[in-house]
Request: fold
Amino acid sequence: MFTLNSTNIISRTIKSTIAVAVLATASLSAQATEISVSDTLVSIEQNISRASQDMIANMQQEMMLTLQAQIAEQLFEVAQDTSEQESVSETQIAAAKDE
Reply:
């Protein structure tokens, strides 16, 4: 799941970067003004930073969900073991009473 999300984020980042480059080129052609390379680089850097933050947030969320699922499974197993032990104890008590 993490790979799918990160692939989507990377894809969006690349598309955004291409869109910025296309818009910069179109703006340069349409308005015949010089666009600063540093502005374009700042925009690209912001897109990459945003994508990285999204990936980290998704990774944290997925890790928390995984941990919660593992804890729930372990609690269920402990509850089952406890229930089985109680059944065995009750059976032993009943057998002892019968003797």
